[in-house]
């Protein structure tokens, strides 16, 4: 039987799953999800999986029929591959929900060319990842197989899906590039957007360096059109370059809040914008220096500065000038043209657009650069706001070759599953294996279609290890999300991720006798990065959190001092190590809640193409855990901000943090609403953004609003950067 031959009138898995959302005698019918899972495996998976008599026959057939890459399997003996499979089978892996199994087989499992038969199960995909990422190292292959089959580690979707396949996409799918203020670089940027979108990439593009509308173009004695027409060109590029219609190209453009085109930039996303300028699919983000918050708090006028003039005066592109430090000098300099607006009026415009569309993302750029241990300047982020890495602008000749090669960013991601990691037999060994798996992807990535990204990856070897399942772990242990215990736990967990990822990167640098580019000018090399760790105990303080980490090694100040000495002596291989993405389909496969966010519903409703609604009960949901699963929409967002802040202090990059708001605010949630309207206003978002800034949050991703008619508005879930 083939998949298209399934008689949908006889299978029960969709019906069972739908019943999960229909209470019976006041009870959620969780047992129906188990029945849906069993029926799906029995009637969809088993009859439609191609059978082989042996592993040898299977791999031989897959290679001969061009399903898997030649070469990487030859790095292992047949005996070892058999041993690896015997181990994986002995772990007795089973999915825990219908959604997990459905997502895996619909999105990840290798199928025949006609899509009628599955060619692998979960164990096969785990084995493929372990064998490929270990690159012939049998010990590492076994360790990675152990991490992935026990779902302590989840490679990013592009990696997990594509490794080992003959016909595949790239192993990374999130990029960050920038343009400088000339036509050659704009043209090269549009070409880069086309190329990266073609391979399935979500692309972040910094436009802050472009001269504003009306600025002079001396060569033609004319005036520039500003950033909005370039945004339209980019949106059309992403729409055109969409993997033959299989996946919508996705991009985000970033602009400094001090750019003179900022009002027009925000206005292009409004529902009532003129069709000539309206952006339908392109995402927006703004980079916000400390100075903006200061001017807003003073209710002061603020100046917007001409990037063209600033670059003439300072000799560097606009993004590379420290606005907070230079603000008064910029105001006083008559050579720099400027516009004046009221800071609070601009802030209200930002909040109005966030209410309407969920955009713009907010990048607290000075916070990112203050905490950045690497020599250089961070000027933007990526499609999901968790990447924060230094870049160097490129210069492009008239023939589109580079007069100066720049440094841009590719996002190479993976995630720990918190609940399963906390049960790891060796926390440190687990993280070290994950870091080596991530580093393997960085080593093999070679995107010559965009030379600045190829150059950045070659020099930096950057990766981004993150985490998912915080809320489900807390609920499992009867801890309220956002409580002092939950926040303390989050801080300790990310301290451990930081410590062991540093240990791993240091060990790789020592083995290879190689560090990331310009290591000697980093805060790692001079040791100052470690100051806060060698002077304070970051381990568990409360009895509850001490019990949660019982049996897990907690580094002391002496351990941090030893690590500091090792890093100063032997260096680090990876320029960046940690980042927390929003997590999409992989959190379902892991039977986990997404990222560090609270849940939206105890039973989540997902709209799946061609199928309709699928329901996903929160992991570990039971009568005992029910009180600990409060919806994000009913939660004070300061609890989310505090949670992310606890993690952020140990993460070298950023965390993709979404805020969840109801259009009608529940009574008693925010004290500043007392005596005022219960409707969400721009003031609510203004207050929360300032709170996040003061708590050290580096970026805010979407603002998602739940309206009174139960429709969710705002941006759709990021499909190009999911892990």
From TrEMBL:
Keywords recorded for this protein, A-Z: Allosteric enzyme, ATP-binding, Coiled coil, Deoxyribonucleotide synthesis, Disulfide bond, Nucleotide-binding, Oxidoreductase
Molecular functions per Gene Ontology: ATP binding; ribonucleoside-diphosphate reductase activity, thioredoxin disulfide as acceptor
Transmembrane segments: none
One Pfam family cited in the UniProt record for this chain: RNR_N
EC number: 1.17.4.1
Stored Gene3D superfamilies: 1.10.1650.20, 3.20.70.20
Coiled coil, from the record: 329-356
GO biological process, one term: deoxyribonucleotide biosynthetic process
Residue ranges of every copy of the Ribonucleotide reductase large subunit domain listed in the record: 560-582
Catalytic activity: a 2'-deoxyribonucleoside 5'-diphosphate + [thioredoxin]-disulfide + H2O = a ribonucleoside 5'-diphosphate + [thioredoxin]-dithiol
Gene Ontology, cellular component aspect: ribonucleoside-diphosphate reductase complex
Family membership: Belongs to the ribonucleoside diphosphate reductase large chain family.
Its biological purpose: Provides the precursors necessary for DNA synthesis. Catalyzes the biosynthesis of deoxyribonucleotides from the corresponding ribonucleotides.
Name of this protein: Ribonucleoside-diphosphate reductase
Organism listed in the record: Limosilactobacillus albertensis
Gene (name only): nrdE
